[in-house]
């Protein structure tokens, strides 16, 4: 999935590594915790990332993380068939496809569900520890999935352990980029997105060949090796922001003068900032996105099985997932450039077009009369996927401002978890009920269209609110503060964190 900008604005939140102590509410005069240094004149010199050097090693590690994690998740269509074959011997359960779909849906859903929690852990214990721990959990989940044939056990090993581990390993891989890049942050994210495709695109073909040769259990063991490598690559997430003893001591002194209840409430408000939900435009945007992704995973999970049943195509079915992955990567690279050329919240219309087209394409799948037609649809589905995920971060910047963009995306992904997890099992139930996948693909096409219609009103409401503010206050300060160029000021950035 989205990866260049899906967590892009969080790229500087990781400056809350243990040495940095982000978000402790220091004054603008003491900025040492954010990596600033006091010059002899008494003015604070902001921390400047190296814009390269060892950062390119971190970019490689992040690209491996993105490619391996989302390559496995997006290739679940292959594993889905292998799971059914593994369970199908002697199993006449009519709801088998519905139950099997929950394995992949739980794993993908946990990535989004855990996102707000991962942000807190990244701030508290740092990118390196969070990512390495997450990769270790994902490794254990995949490896333990190879030692059981129970679907219920794989709900836990693959769905919960691998899904949670993926979330904890993935988010810090983008957060750490803010330590090494600021001016080139967009380039670094683009390289991560493009480089990850070198792993995720050929992985379905690899799984198809390896799965037939060594079976499902050994395939899980091979995939666990990718996470084992990621554990060691996570060690490259070296924080480079200097520590702050004074600011941390000041924060401890302030907490020490409060009661235990006040301290708990202060820490809770610090890490669970719900003020963004006071913004009407954000609430509508988040609701629209959460609605649109209800059927998002249905093509990834069911296309391979569909073409096998409909066209008796078993040798080239892996091409569909390769097309989805390749065009999604291309879409991410293109959408970033296009989004920079579209001013303000008009970027949402690009997301609206992506969702509307995605919904129409899903409903066109049952109308295809040949395997080649499904391939063409997969190419455009992948392009839509890349566009809507990449443009998500710049829209968050416009809606809530750079200071709250990372938390806005974290909460958004948390809201996306439930519909994204439920979509595939619902499609599996429809297949079991009607005996074919036609109803499942028609179902998958409706939520993106509804979500796109909801999103289309956000720019209009935003403009109306800005006009009312100008009339009430007679000032354009709010308008100018929201017109921040994407990447110029990042959440947790040294230039702004001291005011939090």
Question: Could you describe the 3D structure shown?
Answer:
This protein has 500 residues and is mostly helical. Helices cover 71% and strands 1% of the residues. The chain contains 22 helices and two strands. The chain has a two-stranded antiparallel sheet. The chain is globular.
What's a quick, concise take on this entry?
Helix content is 71%, strand content 1%. With 500 residues, the protein is an all-alpha fold.
Q: What's the SSE pattern? A: EEHHHHHHHHHHHHHHHHHHHHHH
Strand line-up in the sheet with most strands? 1-2
Level of helix content?
over 70%
Number of helices: 22
Low-confidence stretches: 1-44, 243-250, 481-500
Largest sheet: 2 strands, antiparallel
Report how far apart the termini are. 31 Å
Strand percentage: under 5%
Over the alpha carbons, how many angstroms does the gyration radius reach? 23 Å
Integer average pLDDT: 75
Number of strands: 2
What is the overall shape?
Answer: globular
**Class from secondary-structure proportions:** mainly alpha
Describe this protein with a few key phrases.
500 residues, mainly alpha, two-stranded antiparallel ribbon, 71% helix, globular, disordered C terminus
How would the blueprint of this fold be written?
Blueprint: E1 37-38, E2 44-45, H1 55-74, H2 76-88, H3 96-113, H4 115-125, H5 127-145, H6 151-175, H7 177-180, H8 185-200, H9 203-233, H10 245-256, H11 260-271, H12 280-292, H13 298-311, H14 318-341, H15 347-364, H16 371-390, H17 392-400, H18 405-434, H19 438-455, H20 458-473, H21 477-482, H22 494-497
Antiparallel strand pairs: 1-2
Helix pairs in contact: 1-6, 1-8, 1-9, 2-3, 2-9, 2-13, 3-6, 3-18, 4-5, 4-6, 4-18, 5-6, 5-9, 8-14, 9-14, 12-18, 12-19, 12-20, 14-16, 15-16, 15-19, 17-18, 18-19
């Amino acid at each position: 999935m989205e990866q260049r900008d899906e967590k892009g604005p969080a790229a500087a939140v990781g400056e809350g590594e243990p040495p940095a102590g982000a978000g402790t509410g220091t004054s603008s005069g003491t900025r040492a915790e954010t990596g600033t240094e006091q010059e002899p004149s008494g003015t604070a010199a902001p921390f400047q990332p190296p814009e390269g050097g060892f950062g390119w090693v971190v970019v490689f590690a992040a690209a491996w993380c993105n490619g391996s994690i989302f390559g496995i998740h997006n290739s679940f269509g292959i594993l889905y068939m292998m799971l059914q074959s593994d369970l199908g011997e002697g199993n006449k359960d009519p709801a088998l496809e519905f139950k099997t779909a929950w394995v992949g849906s739980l794993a993908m859903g946990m990535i989004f569900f855990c996102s707000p929690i991962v942000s807190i852990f990244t701030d508290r214990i740092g990118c390196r520890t969070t990512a390495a721990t997450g990769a270790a959990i994902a490794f254990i989940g995949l490896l333990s999935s190879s030692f059981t044939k129970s679907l219920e056990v794989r709900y836990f090993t693959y769905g919960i352990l691998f899904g949670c581990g993926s979330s904890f390993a993935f988010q810090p891989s983008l957060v750490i980029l803010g330590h090494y890049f600021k001016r080139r942050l967009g380039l670094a994210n683009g390289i991560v997105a493009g480089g990850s495709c070198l792993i995720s695109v050929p992985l379905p073909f690899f799984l198809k060949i390896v799965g037939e040769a060594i079976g499902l259990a050994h395939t899980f063991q091979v995939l666990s090796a990718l996470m084992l490598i990621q554990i060691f690559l996570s060690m490259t997430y070296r924080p480079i922001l200097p520590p702050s003893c004074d600011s941390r001591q000041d924060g401890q002194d302030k907490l020490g003068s409060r009661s235990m209840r006040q301290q708990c409430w202060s820490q809770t408000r610090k890490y669970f900032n719900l003020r963004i939900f006071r913004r009407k435009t954000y609430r509508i945007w988040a609701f629209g996105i959460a609605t649109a992704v209800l059927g998002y995973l249905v093509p990834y999970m069911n296309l391979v099985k569909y073409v096998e049943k409909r066209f008796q195509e078993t040798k080239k079915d892996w091409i569909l997932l390769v097309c989805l992955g390749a065009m999604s990567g291309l879409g991410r690279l293109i959408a970033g450039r296009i989004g920079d050329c579209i001013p303000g919240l008009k970027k949402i219309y690009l997301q609206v077009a992506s969702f509307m087209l995605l919904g129409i394409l899903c409903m066109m799948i049952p109308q295809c009369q040949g395997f080649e037609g499904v391939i063409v649809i997969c190419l455009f589905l992948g392009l839509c996927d890349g566009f809507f995920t990449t443009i998500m971060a710049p829209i968050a910047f416009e809606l809530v401002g750079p200071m709250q963009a990372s938390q806005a995306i974290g909460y958004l992904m948390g809201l996306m978890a439930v519909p994204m997890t439920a979509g595939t099992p619902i499609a599996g139930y429809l297949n079991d009920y009607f005996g074919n996948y036609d109803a499942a693909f028609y179902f998958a096409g409706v939520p993106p269209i509804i979500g796109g219609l909801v999103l289309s009103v956000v720019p209009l409401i935003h403009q109306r609110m800005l006009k009312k503010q100008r009339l009430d206050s007679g000032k354009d300060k709010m308008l100018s503060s929201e017109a921040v160029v994407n990447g110029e000021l990042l959440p947790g950035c040294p230039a702004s964190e001291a005011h939090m």
